[in-house]
């Protein structure tokens, strides 16, 4: 049976590229599908502002007229400039259990990378940190958050057989609020001491519009917070505006914690939301006619609390800002009756952040890996 690698050129092929994941994970209870229109827009330069400083090529593997694999190759010029690299990224990788398919896809990616003068290949990544990243290597029987991929176990074997090696791992935790034991009095006293000593405030907002107005501040602080973390890509003004509309507009006002000085300077933020994973499964890739209904319902279902983003201004690190936010979100989670919380991805070496989960009785239950390969001749 002949195998063909085809570069995506048309909107029809782009839709096929996006929808292939629905075929390969058909019937899998742990697959959380994206919204198809959002995923398509990710690869349209007139929709995704990341293309101001990025290039991409999408490849489909086709055997006897049927799609059997896909991969996106991305050059982030802004990331390469920041990290002083000549690196090519790969993402949106899916394939049947067949090494020939994997090799053909990655050969095409590497060939393009060498044509562009690049010498390393890393992934799975996206264009920026708001895109999904990391190959699932532990936790195949767990439901992902909407911010992460699901992969078949055989992916790891074929990718490593191709010559990729571990670059970094991300870990994820499932935790439960301390309903029986409560938040330790010592921690509450420390939080009160921190607020008094540094005159910190945790503003309470009557509606989410007032928080959305601070979206640009929040995303700038997000950039600053993760500036030194592996592979992070700074956001442009247009990208911040794009993600404020796309994500921050859906926040739950009680599940966002901000810390500011007495002068109103934002020094910390924590964004959490009720899990949308099951709602996305019910939506089956479409907002209409019922997808949006399922999501709005999920935003008022207080079962699993997903942690998405958090940040602390550099000069205020080590002064208890993160402790204040964790204590407040624990209180809120208990008030709403959340059964458990998902941490989303944290670098395995980030023990400081992981220590903050101790109030939630953390259990590591998923692991994702970024791979790297030399592609020079």
Uncertain ranges: none
Helix content: 25-40%
Whole-number tally of structural domains: 2
Ends distance: 30 Å
SSE-based structural type:
alpha+beta
Relevant CATH superfamily of the largest domain? Gcn5-related N-acetyltransferase (GNAT)
- CATH architecture annotation of the largest domain: 3-Layer(aba) Sandwich
Total helices: the number is 13
Overall shape: it is globular
CATH topology of the largest domain, what is it called? Answer: Aminopeptidase
* Biggest pleated sheet: 13 strands, mixed
Beta percentage is 15-25%
CATH level 1 name of the largest domain: Alpha Beta
Give the overall pLDDT as a whole number.
93
Please report the total strand number as a whole number. 13
Series of H and E elements: EHHEEHEHEEHEHHHHEEHHEHEEHE
User: Gyration radius, to the nearest Å?
Assistant: 21 Å
